[in-house]
Amino acid sequence: MLTLDLLRVKRKESQIKPKYLTEAWPAEYVLSAYRPGVKLGEARAKIDDAPAEPKLVRGLAHIAERLVKLEEVDKKRLLKIRLEVFREAARRHPVLTDDARRAVIKAVAERLKISEGEVEEALAKAHEDELVIVEPPNTSAEELVSMYNTALIQTLLFRSQYMTSYVKASGAQMKALIRALKGLGLMYTAEPEGGGIKLNIDGPASILKQTERYGTRLAKLVPYIIGAGDWRIEAKIRLYEKTYLFAESKSTAPRLSTRDIVEAEFDSSIEQEFYRQVSRVCKIEREPEALVVGGRVYIPDFKIGDLYVEVVGFWTPDYLRRKFEKLAAAKVPLLVLVDEKLALASWRELPHYVALFSGRPRLSDVYKYIKPYCSK
Amino acid sequence: MDLNFIALINVLELLWDRGTVVVSGQPPPQLKQLSFLKFDTRIGKYRALAMYYPRLKAVLDAVGVEYVDLVLSPQCRLEAVKRPQLRPYQLEAVERWMRTKRGVVVMPTGAGKTYVAVEAMARLNEPTLVVVPTIELVEQWRQRLSEYFPGRVGAWYGEEKKEGCATVTTYDSAYISIEVLGNRYPFIVFDEVHHLPSEAYRQIAELSPAPHRLGLTATPERSDDLHLLLPDLVGPVVYRMAVSEAAGKYLAEFEVEAVKVGLSEEEMKRYKELEEVYKSYIKSRGLRFKSPSDFQKLIVLAGRSDEARRALEAWHEMRRMLFETKSKVDVVADILARHPQGKVLIFTEYTSLARAVSRRYLIPEVTYDTPPQERELVFEMFRRGEVKAVVTGKVLDEGVDVPDVDVVVILGGTSSNRQFIQRMGRALRLKPHKAKIYEVITARTREVDISRRRRRGL
């Protein structure tokens, strides 16, 4: 993501789009500026002199700098030297001439038993600019371009008031998206659309005031969305005191980068084991596409024929009943596997759609339930 | 189904939901008419911004409906181990505020606004969220509050997120975190409250359910007139004291001296070229700039035409020249020589000038670049008198105590009257002698005009 002042956009009536970078040479130029042995400040000066639009190169540089490795300095030691200089200068206050200045540096160097050059260096290295690059940005020009274009989309979304996104993705990808969305304190409603799911995303206060408050959080969802098999986003953007519509999709966007996704998949070994066992006898699908039930996204673990299977951790009979009622209303056949040890309430009789296992689910526990749906 | 459960469904509940209040259950018709309450189809319930929580309760109480209030969840009772010794005007400010427990107190920098807040907190005994503009001020408030509420004070910003019974946070952090923190604090204090009305920060007040609110500032007025929102967000001005009332009695007397420096011949030539580019564009478009918000127009235009962009770039470069000219570094020597004993604080507009002054005269700099630990150590040394001068950018514009500064040097700054008053205020803690303010201005440039504007109404 960039800072808002580095955003570049094209506007046409009420539509807005990022000004994507389509050539590689500005990225090559930027990568060549951040080369090992050069001070960060020198690299930045080269960026300022670039024969291209300043906002563009500064945007690329912003991303490249995150991927660069700078020399490591002993900050504590440098700080100690600096403070010693300031103290010494204060004793001779005011230090006005070059000679007086030199005398301070010399006195400090002698006291700390270091060279005068090291003292000057400590004064200089207070600033990041003075640090030397030891490893170049670990990326290619092509990847930098795609990261830049992704960052432009995210930065534009900083100013968004809500976002609609259509996503066609595996259950695991959908799960990561929904989890990120909830973790960011956002809200959504879902509806099925053309084999995928359409999510209307905003935050609690959105119905009370038009606000860009959730914009930075909506931007953080971008890497989760663009990794999907198919996607489309639409957002209302408030910029330059006007309201615009931004629309982008997999087929219209340039190459983008999902390098910023940090979250991994969440599936546990219990589920893997179950999958392995069942797959020997039936066709079983892992991470089937997510379903929409009553405006919410529902992500089952497996699909065997038309039967959805979910492995549940902690549970109560009431929780199971509510879940089943919802799914039954949506006419979705469901089998829930529960661990008898993890029941949170006492129970006498299990409903017909619940199979019990102990420790980990085995084929023998569930075969009679899945048999009608099983094919190979 | 469980009978208790059914009974619960029909009872009206007020719930906290991330900066909003949700009304669960069947609200009476009087409630549905309230303009600030909206039906949220996403959850099938009514919802309002948290700031309307007290009004919502007032309406329910007036109608006489039973309801369960689950909005506020204070975690503790705030008790002071001692009380501040208040000056008469501070006491009066507290008394006036206590009548409604909402409102803004206006007092000059150095008059001890913090103690007004401490006393209000000690009287209310409620968990309090204190919102301040900078990290330095977080530290300063934390130290000050810890004297009165030892062990009960937390700080919430950046990496450090630790709540106490009184928690100090920045406007930036509060903007993001009010959704999480809001309902634990029935009392919210806004230091330098003139920041609050800006479009983003305003939401801190809107998404907080705190019935009790106190704003502190030396100058509530804003050039964009947004201070007109303060009565809704915090409450009306309940107490006001001008600088002139305090000077000599509670604040030091002061003297402002303008020091003129010149651009080099070469610099002046470049400056005039830039000025030509800028002025001819402004004239050709018939633009007039009366307030900072008018300047936004140029920024908007610059996004559309190359001519406007060049004019804006010329303006920026002129500004940099004014604020960074080498003669400004030179002039610091004269001023330091004139005050060999006094504590001197030097303000610049850009970090690069602060850096140049620091390197040349070997005085510490405190800017946004300076690591927090170094800032603190430098402040400590400055307080103890171990260093005699500090050069800084905009970080110290507001609030931070730098006690006993005798001389303030303004090497570069905006035309903002508030910035000037606040920078000047660094030297105005009561002392036996007069405080001295130097304002360094580049002759024959727009800086002369900038200076005239920032000094109005002193």
CATH class label of the largest domain in chain B: Alpha Beta
| Count of β-strands of chain B | 19
Radius of gyration of chain B: 25 Å
Mean pLDDT of chain A: 86
What would you note in describing this structure?
The complex is a heterodimer of chains A (376) and B (458). With 376 residues, chain A is of the alpha+beta class. Among the domains of chain A are: 75-124; 158-265, Alpha-Beta Plaits (2-Layer Sandwich); 269-373, Trna Endonuclease, Chain: A, domain 1 (3-Layer(aba) Sandwich), CATH 3.40.1350. Chain A has 12 helices and 16 strands. Chain A has helices at 25-33, 40-48, 54-66, 75-91, 98-112, 116-124, 141-157, 171-183, 215-226, 269-279, 317-329, 363-370, and strands at 9-12, 15-18, 69-70, 133-135, 160-168, 187-193, 196-202, 230-239, 242-249, 284-286, 291-293, 296-298, 302-304, 307-312, 334-339, 354-357. A 5-stranded antiparallel beta sheet of chain A has the order 6-7-5-8-9, with helices on one face. In chain A, helix 4 crosses helix 5. With 458 residues, chain B is of the alpha/beta class. Chain B has 4 domains: 3-70, 3-Layer(aba) Sandwich (MutS, DNA mismatch repair protein, domain I); 88-246, P-loop containing nucleotide triphosphate hydrolases (Rossmann fold, 3-Layer(aba) Sandwich); 254-262 and 325-455, P-loop containing nucleotide triphosphate hydrolases (Rossmann fold); 265-323, no CATH class. Chain B contains 18 helices and 19 strands. Chain B has helices at 3-10, 29-32, 53-63, 88-98, 113-124, 135-148, 171-181, 202-206, 230-233, 243-246, 265-285, 292-302, 306-324, 326-338, 351-361, 372-384, 417-425, 447-455; strands spanning 12-17, 20-24, 38-40, 45-49, 67-70, 102-106, 128-132, 153-157, 160-162, 166-170, 187-191, 212-217, 237-240, 254-261, 344-347, 365-366, 389-392, 407-410, 435-442. The relative contact order of chain B is 0.10.
